[in-house]
Write a structure and sequence with these properties.
The chain has 21 helices and ten strands. The chain is an alpha/beta fold and 567 residues long. Strand 2 and strand 3 form a beta hairpin.
Length: 567
Amino acid sequence: MSLLVVGLSHRSAPVSVLERAALSADAQVKLLQDTLAAEPATEGAVLATCNRIELYADVDKFHAGVAELSTLLAQHSGVGLEELTPHLYVHYEDRAVHHLFSVACGLDSMVVGEGQILGQIKDALATAQELHTAGRLLNDLFQQALRVGKRAHSETGIDRAGQSLVTFGLEQLSAGRAVEAWAKGKKALVIGAGSMSSLAAATLARAGVGEIVIANRTPDRAERLAEILSGGDDTDVLARAVPMDAVPAELTRADIAVSCTGATGLVLSADSVAAAVEGRTGSPVAVRDETPAADGQFAPAGIGTDDGCPLDLSAVQGATGFSVMGEAAVAGMDAATLEQHAAWVDKGTGTEERRDTRGTPDADAELISALAATAATVGRIPERRRPEPVSRVPRPAPVLALLDLAMPRDIDAAVHRLLGVRLVDIESLAEASADAPMAADVDQVRRIVSDEVAAFGAAQRAAHITPTVVALRAMAADVVANEIARLDGRLPDLDDKQRGEIGQTVRRVVDKLLHAPTVRVKQLAAEPGGAGYADALRTLFDLDPETVAAVSRAENNTENAKNRGRA
């Protein structure tokens, strides 16, 4: 069997696809059940976060496994396979182990070094154990991933390379100010009471907000979170719980709102946010112009509807037969250029003749006369000047800061256009984090990951041969027992002490004969390419494959029971 992971994340898919592919808790359960029902897979686990969906499985066929897992992801995510496939990535064997360890260390996170992913990996393992879809391989893999992630955070400064998604989002909202200074004394509304919302509430409390209101569909969870926040020793925040139908009123009072629910639709529409701001300010909310010009830049000059105009001017027909715009730059142009323009207006008529006289005194005099006639028509000679800068409507300071950490999104993306509102969501976080600096500690974490991948591979290869070694020793014990029984028949006069001494001697001889080969074969099997030693051992000692398989199943059952206890 071999480890396979098929998935998509913020690195491989746009937020719009991730949003549609998000799996509810029920969908994850059904996906795991269907994964084990599929022929290639014997184990399965789903790691689903706000910016990744990954399906891990122990499969016996690579190509069939990829096809089956991809199809299952498409079926349960609701995104068609043809649309989903370009965004999927596949990792196999050691590459799959390397990927999960990198994820656990925060190297693959939207915000490098964030530690919340460890809790999400733990939840994924607990779900797989509860559904009995995680066998020995995935139990070992996820447990080791958690240890590697903790080691990376304790032995390196990876935490300095980035923050949790919540902290990074609040930093984006504060727009360069220290989060503590920006948040101090503000009123916050947190929608949802799950792990991400709880982290957001705790982060806001530590940042110094004066009040936190928790809204959740399950009132008990909201009240419990409010109690925890109010009773914290390291904060002095007033926290209270409200029902979801109180969100519109609370939004009018809030300075900051964080939303992360499992809702499949929008929790806050653009209209509801606009109404909240209007209720707070007493003025209608303006909508931001979607075609802004950069500060200090000029809008592009007007382009006439007549294609091919050499001067690129809007057509204002003059009596002289060529077009000028009263505010455009015509004065000061050389006669040849003006002549070319006149020829274009005349649709090419007389072009050759005009070319023949280009630059002659007569031609210049004629064009000067034409320009004078134009000036008489327009009222003045147009002067060469730059276009006026585009006037910009001053943007008011935000009165409401919104942080949307849900996938799919809780807050309508149209809120970005509302003046007086600042919205940071998963998509804007992805754009902001693309330029985030990488700490030097990242290289050290990568070395840790590489070392741990090698160690995990060696342990798995050694574990792969263990059932064969156990079966060999069990066969040797049976041989000893049978020979002692035959000895009893041949020498019935032996007393118990003599019989015990003989039995112990025979067993010591067998153990000594098997010790060196079994220890050495475990060492060899742990090396790359050592998978064939188990087959060689079974062939050399004529071991029954079913006996080896039975030992392996028994060990898996024991290990799974222990892991379920840990979870």
